[in-house]
Amino acid sequence: MPLGAGEASMTTDAMTKMKEADQRDYTASELLAVMSGRLLKDGQVVFAGVGIPLLAATLAQRLHGPGLTILFEGGTIGAFVVPGELPPSTNEQRCTRRANMVLSSTDVLLLLQRGYVDIGFMGGAQIDQYGNLNSSFIGDPANPTIRLPGTGGGNDISSLTQMIVAMKHEKRRFVANVDFITSPGFVHGGSSRKDSGLLAGGMYRVVTDLAIMGFDENSKRMKVLALHPGVSVDQVQANTGFELLVDKNVVTTEPPSERELAVLRHLDPEKLYTA
Amino acid sequence: MIEPYLELRRKTAERDRSLREKVMTLEEATKLVEDGDQVGIGGSTLSRTPIAMIWALIRAGKKGLTCMRSITSNEGELLFATGACNHIITSWFSHGIVWGVSRVMRHYTESNKARFDEWSHMAMGMRFRAGGMGVPFLPMRSMLGSDVIKLRPEVREIECPFTGERLVLIPALNPDVALIHVQRCDAYGNAQMDGLQFMDIDLAMAAKRVILTTERVVSNDQIRRRPDHTKIPFFTVDAVVEVPFGCAPHECYGVYEPFFKHHDYYAGLVKKDPIKGISEYLDHYFYGPRNWAEYLSLLGTEEMLDAARRGRSIHDD
Hints:
The structure holds two protein chains of two kinds. Helix content of chain A is 25%, strand content 23%. Chain A has helices at 12-22, 28-37, 52-63, 105-114, 154-160, 192-195, 233-238, 258-267; strands spanning 45-48, 69-72, 76-77, 101-102, 119-123, 126-128, 133-134, 137-140, 143-147, 162-166, 174-175, 202-207, 211-215, 222-227, 245-252. Chain A is globular. The termini of chain A are close together. By secondary structure, chain B is α/β, with parallel strands linked by helices. Chain B has helices spanning 5-14, 26-30, 51-59, 74-82, 103-110, 121-133, 200-206, 220-225, 260-272, 274-287, 292-299, 301-312, and strands at 38-41, 65-68, 85-90, 115-118, 137-140, 156-159, 166-171, 177-185, 191-192, 210-217, 230-232, 239-242. In chain B, the strands form two sheets. In chain B, strands 1, 2, 3, 4, 8, 9, 10, 11 and 12 form a nine-stranded mixed beta sheet that branches. In chain B, strands 5-7-6 form a three-stranded antiparallel beta sheet, with helices on one face. Chain B starts with a helix and ends in a 5-residue tail after the last helix. The chains are: A alpha/beta, B alpha/beta. At the A-B interface, helix 4, strand 9 and helix 5 of A face helix 5, helix 6 and helix 7 of B.
């Protein structure tokens, strides 16, 4: 677990908790998949990206959401991914197993715009205090340090529906302002998202290996809502490159159950997404 | 940038749209692509990528193409590395998430040796659809508020004349030529596609020429027995090339899955050294073989059978 950065500011109690946490028998990615999967409700229509989102949505479908409808940008409606046969992207035949329908990718993306999708679910390379995601450029876009692969469907999903983002909690990934807004969250906070013409959707939750965050109703700044077992607010803050708001009633999440981990490992036995 | 409507109509009118046989070889089909052309590429990521046609275009020494695809995988790396293409218009460009961020894409784009224009995935769809509809643009609600739109001087933001809402107008794409691989078609080019269609139907309608590669050429009688399975009509098609395993090492739905071991090998090669690695790969797999069959034998029977077994397994349930 990449928890080291928070140690300096920790109390003895927190240190003890962390040592316990180090002994837990799941990876950060597995924790992410379990925690984000729990946020999906049976009966919802969820548009999932490849990696942890695909896996977490499939986990939710197998555990508590048999009526969860999973959409992939390749054109799949109602995916039912076969355990151990995870696709390399959301565009291969593995995405269509036992699906209800396949559409063109344009038409499945248009379902977002029409309003048929409850939740968009994605991973993220870099996020900021307003939930904007960057998957395009590190550094100046005109002369980037790193050219990243780009938006794919990310921009469309985050522009048109409520979003859950699952990502590793690291200071270099949680920055005050992203270098480039690939997939808009609340843009510059306040009403700026709506003002820019994005009338629907917005960031709902950010799930990391340390905590679950939401966004303040007015300022639209990121806010800690829940901590994973053995994690302190200080530790979350120490791994974040901007000041986090903290909810008055921060709760602690239940650790992943044996059943959750067993089903997850059955789905991804080769740890393709959960290494 | 947007083809004037009557010009587009004139070019369509000039095409021989009669019910005629148009089966030819890969090498013959390369003559339908000119240096500098705009080339629309069918499929998405590792799926139904027209690898055989791209392989043939690279071998024919094509230069300066502008390629457009919904999502671009390592075929984009190969196109950049050979100079066949110096401009890619797409929504996402890397080999695949399981292999990390493409060092080849990074090398060419970060040093401005080649251009990668980023559009949202739906915007790519709107571009091909508008092109296929014969209209100059389509309105859309994403890309607003982002920096993606700031890098796209090609689009316009407007206030809707009906509702006053802000909309983005996405300009049409009518590529000079489209490369599309399908499971089967007849000698006229009536194409039947199984599984995910991606943007291929719009792409075929939008393009000024279409080169169809196919796993099998079937009889026109067979097409007529199931016309509901025909997704691309013959009169949009200019060339039909029968190429078994024409997407290898990518996937063709229901026929073969990606050749995963080969992808791991390729990713390892370009990770070590993007330039030397891809050049070694091109020499061995693209420039070395005498023909497509020899290329397939380099990929290996074992891998091919494994990919085919996995590909066909979707028909087992």
